[in-house]
Structure formats: C-alpha cells, structure tokens
Write a structure and sequence with these properties.
about 120 residues
C-alpha cells in the first residue's frame, strides 16, 4: 500500500510540477504571485497537517457532499493521502524546476532561439 501511494502521488505530483513552475515564472504578476503564495503555503505546512486538513476538513464542506466526484475522492483515506502527497510533491518539484528556469541567463535563451535563414 505504501509503494502504491508513493508511486501514484509522485506520478501525479511530477505532472503538475512543470505547469506550476511555468505559472510561477509567468510574466503576469497576478498569476505568478498567487502561484507563489500557494506553493509557499504548501511547503511551509507539515505534511501531516495537510493530510489532516484534506481528510477531515473537505468532508465538512457542503459542496463536497453534493458533488459525487469530489465525495468519491474525499470518502476514502487513501485517496486523500494521494491528493495530499501529490500536492506536496508538485510544490517541491515546481520549486526545483522554477529555480532551474530562473538560473539560466537571458543570453543563453537568446542563443537558443532559431535563426531565420534566407531562402
């Protein structure tokens, strides 16, 4: 069960990581700031607290009970664990990718652009 939870959460988290990294390096200030704030909040709270919040608090929201797809995710503990672990993995992997993207100098990006060749 542990290997299954780990494999699922890492697979899901690594798929969301690059998208979050691109959102974080976005030129639109609102998108970048909101993504940064969410990722900081996820990275600064302990994983056990995130697990408890997802498992216990999502069930208290009326919208979760009224939507069958959300209730299916929240009704079982292993699904909540995968969701919490995937969020944590996505936050950390996006931070790693974002730091990698911002560490490349602008001149290297300009060198990598294709040059239009005359026909």
């Amino acid at each position: 069960m542990t290997l299954t939870l780990a494999a699922l959460s890492v697979a899901i988290g690594f798929h969301f990581g690059p998208g979050l990294a691109l959102m974080r390096t976005s030129h639109r200030r609102a998108v970048s700031d909101i993504t940064r704030a969410c990722m900081i909040a996820i990275r600064r709270t302990p994983l056990l607290v995130q697990l408890f919040l997802i498992y216990y608090s999502l069930g208290l929201i009326r919208f979760t009970h009224d939507t069958p797809a959300l209730w299916r995710v929240d009704s079982e503990g292993s699904r909540c664990a995968v969701m919490a672990l995937a969020l944590d993995t996505a936050a950390y992997s996006s931070e790693i990718l974002c730091d990698g993207l911002t560490s490349v100098p602008v001149g290297l990006f300009e060198l990598a652009k294709p040059v239009a060749r005359p026909a």
